[in-house]
Amino acid sequence: MTDFAHDSAAVQAATDRLLTAVTSLDDAAASRPSRLPGWTRGHVLAHISRNADAIVNLLTWARTGEETLMYASDDARNADIARDADRPFVVHLDDLRTSAFRFNSATAALPKDRWDFEVAMRNGVTERAARLPFRRLIEVELHHVDLDIGYELDDLPADFVEREVEFLASGKFAGHADVPALALTTPDGRVWQTGRPAEQATTVEGTPVALLGWLTGRTDGAGLTSADGTPLPTLPPLG
Predict the structure, then answer these.
(1) Alpha helices in 132-234 (DSSP H)
(2) Residue pLDDT, tens place only, 99-124
């Protein structure tokens, strides 16, 4: 269930964890590879900041009703990340802080009667304004892991992990032509259905963290088993 105020507070808490963690970095550390192929930590830091501003654009659109695109284009998004990746670390740190402030201000400014307003994200995906803080939370939490500075999937808050598994199973991969029918199952009996409809589902079992790692492409499915013993299917990238 979406809770705009709860999710907005969760973003602030996750951002505070991130800001505390990255203070140990310097210019050399920021230039080293992240866990994302082809991206340094600087690329990840730049993306986190620019994503905050992108979601501010959507919150502004929801508040005013005037179309404000998330990014001018995919090319512009990628160019901004490439431009900012090699900045001195102190500039990254200031950008993280100030973009987070703009995000917090934008969530505080959105009245409740605009929470159901729908905006267009990247790739034609539409989203209710009430869900935008959770969208931002996904970016902060997962990219904190991608920085490879000691924050791991196992460190993610349990409620976030379960909500993200539900979000991906019921949204991103539900009905996806390239994903076979799957029943994502935990040892304590929770089940999320996803993939192609009208097929007999293959059961994939593991902890919520193991499922999250696989669904988001952060792991190869370590810790998961399929009921019939076949290899786990290859999932499409999140994009």
Answers:
(1) 132-146, 158-167, 208-215
(2) 999 999 999 999 999 999 999 999 88
All structural domains of the chain with their residue ranges: 4-151, 165-226
**Residue written as tokens 């539409």?**
126
Q: How far is Cα 233 from Cα 227, in angstroms, rounded to an integer?
A: 13
> Are the C-beta atoms of 133 and 8 separated by less than 8 Å?
yes
Cβ neighbourhood burial of 30 (10 Å; 0-12, 13-18, 19+): buried
Q: What is the CATH number of domain 4-151?
A: 1.20.120.450
Contacts 24+ apart (CB under 8 A), 114-121: 114/62, 114/63, 115/4, 115/62, 117/61, 117/62, 117/65, 119/58, 119/61, 119/62, 119/70, 120/69, 120/70, 121/58, 121/70
- Residue 64 above 70 pLDDT? yes
Answer yes or no: pTM beyond 0.90.
yes
